[in-house]
Design a protein that fits this description.
Two copies of one chain form a homodimer.
Chain A (H helix, E strand, L loop, with lengths): L6 H10 L7 H13 L2 H17 L1 E2 L6 E2 L5 H4 L4 E8 L2 H10 L4 E5 L17 H8 L6 E4 L5 H13 L6 E4 L15 H9 L4 H5 L3
Parallel strand pairs in A: 3-4, 3-5, 5-6
Antiparallel strand pairs in A: 1-2
Helix pairs in contact in A: 1-2
């Protein structure tokens, strides 16, 4: 066990080391870096994370992170409310928004079913999703979850849960990445890309 | 430029991304992780770094980080005050202390001479070192700086700066790591290890 020359340093290292992917050595490097910065800079860091945790709001409609009761996407009158894209967390919302290719709205589950990590359907915003679908406005739900076992499990759970609703259930396409060579693509992905082939004419129309 | 669904989140990501080695993607992952933690946990993180930056003291003797005016090493009556080991920063103090092989005291420079990073001798605690040596108590100064160009430059600067004092100036041994094979050691290190060879009898006495 490492001994630190200062309790204050040790405490800060302990807290920094709780961040994901940060070990004690990196935490120490961070702490020593902070000691060289202005007090105002360090206060900005400390207060910004507390303020964020304390004041952030989740959109009552889609559970996206928000500064208001409804997020910027849900209040935007130009978004298509008949299509809901279901994602794991807000990083996925940000990634899809960055493509500029999607004009519907979202539903953030806040995770995916993962028994190993103690996350079951009840830990996710699934009831909030079915509640949204009750009004009949939504015509299509796009499942945009990770292509992992957990993602597939969650997809299947939602497929059964949503079977009673009159809507189209789709998943985002799995296929080879744009720019990738076929010989370097794993066989599962390549197989999917053949099974789920797309009419060439529709690809021609895409930018 | 990434757009964030919340200003509070964006602010926290901006601050976390200023930590060394943390890019914006990792900062976002950290921020989302913090949102899932208890408010008390996040407050512990935020306040611990501010408190550390605000209240930490540097030992007036050796410039080591401390909770008091003099650090635990400098106040320890069992430490040999005639030997001073000069190091770059407190991580080096911790590393040498962990070996359990050193019983002298330290002097923390707070960096090394690096014109590329705008760090000259005046940015380092070199005057504090010469002031310590004035009393004549110190008989040996060990230079334990990194084996880089910057480390060598600082060594040479200190060599000239300390030439007027009546003391032995040594550097820590450069050689092949314990457990390393000769064929995998770079030739500069291997060359040094031959030039600075150690009497076998003295090695026999070491644990």
């Amino acid at each position: 066990m490492q001994t630190y020359p200062s309790k204050l340093l040790e405490l800060a290292v302990n807290e920094l080391a709780k961040l994901p992917g940060i070990g004690r050595k990196t935490a120490l490097r961070m702490a020593l870096h902070l000691l060289k910065r202005n007090l105002a800079d360090v206060e900005a860091l400390g207060t910004s994370v507390i303020k964020m945790r304390n004041e952030i709001i989740y959109c009552t409609e889609c559970r996206n992170i928000s500064d208001q009761e409804l997020c910027a996407i849900c209040v935007n009158p130009k978004r298509d409310r008949t299509v809901v894209c279901v994602v794991e967390d807000i990083r996925d919302v940000m990634a899809i928004e960055n493509t500029g290719q999607y004009n519907g709205v979202y539903h953030v589950l806040g995770g995916i079913i993962s028994p190993m990590n103690g996350i079951g359907p009840n830990e996710l915003h699934i009831d909030a999703l079915t509640a949204r679908l009750g009004s009949g406005v939504v015509k299509e739900v796009i499942l945009a979850l990770p292509t992992t076992i957990e993602g597939d499990t969650t997809n299947f759970y939602l497929f059964r849960k949503l079977s009673g609703f009159n809507l189209t259930l789709t998943t985002i396409a799995r296929g080879i990445s744009v720019g990738d060579e076929l010989e370097h693509t794993d066989e599962v992905t390549l197989g999917r890309s053949i099974l789920n082939r797309t009419p060439y004419e529709s690809v021609l129309k895409q930018k």
